Every structure is written in C-alpha cells, then in structure tokens.
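Q&A FORM
Asked by: J.P.
Topic: structure of Amidase

PROVIDED:
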Amino acid sequence: MEWSFQTAEELAAALRAGDVTSAELTDEAIARIERDDKVINAICVPDFDRARAAARGADQARARGEVRPLLGIPVTVKESYNMAGLPTTWGMPQHRDYVPAEDAVQVSRLKAAGAVVLGKTNVPLGLQDIQSFNEIYGTTNNPWEHDRTPGGSSGGSAAALASGFGALSIGSDLAGSLRTPAHFCGIYAHKPTLGLAATRGMVAPPAPALPVDLDLAVVGPMARTARDLTLLLDVMAGPDPLTLGKAHNVALPPARHERLGDFRVLVLNEHPLIPTGSAVRAGVNRVADALADGGARVERHTPLLPDLTEAAMLYTQLQFSGSVARFPVDSYEQLVTRAAGLSADDQSLDAARLRAMVFSHRDWIEANNRRELHRHGWRQLFAEFDAVVCPITPTPAFPHDHNPNPLERRIDIDGVEYPYFDQLVWAGLATMPGLPATAIPAGRSPEGLPVGVQLIGPMFEDRTPLRLAELLEQKIGGFQAPR
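REPLIED BY: S.T.
REPLY: Here is the structure written out as tokens.
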C-alpha cells in the first residue's frame, strides 16, 4: 500500500494497528522526495539520516507502549524555524552558513509529540514575498503547474504537502503566508489567533531566539485535511514556557457548533480596494451554496462588518512600519525623502506602504489604537455570526515573477493589472486584528488550478473555523493530489 497521501490521522491509526512502521513510512516519504522533488524543489534542507533514526526510535517507543499524538508520523518544517544542526537562512545569502544550536520551541513540540522531521522547506528571501524563491535554494514550483508559484512564504511546505512529502508541516503567517500557499496548492492551513502558539526560534538569523511577542505574525499548522490541522494545532498551541507558560495553560473553548445547519456565516467576495477574480469568486460562492444547502444561516451583508478600506489601510501601516524597523540608516533616509514627496491626495495602498515605512512611534500608537477599535467591532460581529467566509487572494496561483523590485510587479485579475502587494488586503483582514483563519480548498479554476477560501473566526475560538472547515470538507470535498 502507498502511504504518501494518507492523512496524519490515518497514519496514526495504521501505526497503532501495526499495519506499517514509522521506518517504512519514512523510507517511502524519502524515496518520493528523492524521485519527485527535483521538479518541485520544496525540500531545501533534507535531514534524512536523522529522520530515519527518529523513525526507528518512534517504533521502539511504540513497542514500549508509549502514546504520543504524532508518534512516528513524517512531517516537514519551514526553513525559517531553527533546528539544531541545520542551517536557518531565511533565504538570505549572507547567512547561508548560520546553524543554530537549539531547536525552535515548535520544533521541540513536534519532536516531543513523536513526529519524524524529514527536513526543511523552501521560503522567499527574508520571508517577504508571495512566492518562494531565493539565491541559496532556488525556486519552488507549484505542483499543479510548474511555471506558477506555490505561494509564500510557506510555499515550500504547501508544495511538499501537495506532493505527498510528509503528512504535516508547520509554517508561519504575517501576510497570508500560511493561507495563500494553501489556496495556491489545494491544501489546508490554519492561522491561529495572535499569541496562541509560541514563536520563539522562528527568528531571522543570526538573531537570538528570544521569547518575543510578535505583532501580526503567527506560527501555525498545514495539512491535507481539516482534522489534521486540529491535531497539529493541539501540539503547537500554548504559551512559551519561558514567559506566560510559567503561569498559564491553554484551554481553547470547543467549537460553537457541531452541525453545519447551526452555523451563522457572513460571506464576503467583494473588497473596495481590489476586485475578486472570477475563479475565486466562484470558489466563495461554492462554499456559500454548500453552507446554505446544509441549513446554515448565510448572510452577504451586515452593518456590523468593520470598514474594509480602513482595515486594509491599518493592516498596511502596521505591517510595513514593522518590516523596515531594522533598515540601514541610509535606506531609511531615502524612504523619508520619498514619503515627503507624496501628494496629500494620494490615498492608495502604495502610498500607505511608503508612509508606514517612516512611521513615528506616535503614528504607530495611533494606528494601534484604531486597531483596538476594529477588534471591538469584530467582537460585536461575532456575537451575531460564527464565521466569515472570504477570499485569501483575488486569483489562483500566478506565474513566477522574479522582478527584483516587487513594487514594480503586477498581479493580473481577469485581464487587468493591479499593484502586486494590493492582493494582500484579504489576508490582512484576519491578520490585522489577530483573528484565527482556516484556509480550505474550494474547487478548481477553469484552468484546473486549486482555489481556496478562508474561514475567519472569533479571537481564541480557533476550534470554530476548524470545525466548520471539517464540515465543509465533508460537504464539498477537500484535498486532491495534483494530476
């Protein structure tokens, strides 16, 4: 039997039943990677010797009667996580030889849960792209169509899962970096509530792995089913043992509902700042129809929805003000000059990005205060709704575009070009207020490319969008292996 596309849940059951060993699963996964990854280039740092040793150890542990949630299951890890003995570069050539001495907290949790780590997956330079290519490791291709991107920055992990290279992966998300690759590759991913999962050791080299509370950015699970997302989130969730973990344990509330017909869902497919392409619009509508057919209450409009234009502007300000915080002084002064030259009438997202790059601390505090007002607005919305269904990006996976200046790139939406980074507004809808969001497959484009949508839920009620994802998987289907 071939095991490569079985779910983690199915593999765990087969391991418990003695139908297969972890050593056999690991050997099969390695053989598939060695055969197929020459074309995909998802696994940028293989760790096969240690994986085989970990698999043998998992089989021995099971024989001793040990029970752990991921015992013996092959997984991958995004390159940006520290793993002792392996390089962590974030795709930056100047750090190609940086090798951390300790595992990131999430890598430690994977290993403690019994997972077998096959290796690390590719990322874009500095994790700052919607694609996954860099000078050190090259370009990762979409398994569905190799001249297209698998997304970024967790594109290597998404491509690995779609290709059968392990049952699970862990990634991170600041600008849709879990959700966009899931959408582009036809898999599942979950952006947890901000602060739910500890991030220590998911840090750019050569910075020390400190227990810092990141703004906007989270770490989270990727899988080929919704139930596997929940399995992995339960391993990842929890505060850092060096800080809040000294006093707090995680006790996520259960999903609000167990039946599809009990959910109250707001469906969005239009954004005031960028159109939604026809293929993605069809995916959103397919999910909306499935919800209605299952008896859920589905609405398309509500006065409770926070203003989408202001939300996008706030997200842009918070994201880009943080992204340049460590720019060299000369580069920063150039940005100040350019921002000063903007017309006061220019309220485009491009202008917002440039202004945010030179924010004062006072500017940031004002933006953060407005974010808190949006968070309160979302609390009021989620008193009336259980989830929001909306796009992740306006299009399916787009062709590789390696223009070294991403501000010159354009995204084609049904034949009309728009600024490249404007496509982030949908991802930012959940990121800016720190809400959980689950990416699910929602069909195929006319060209046969995967299309996904995101299910946004209430803060720290991650099990609600995850449960809805599971119910929709039963209703409309889920992952399909690339043909």
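FOLLOW-UP: The chain has two domains: 8-246, 260-476.
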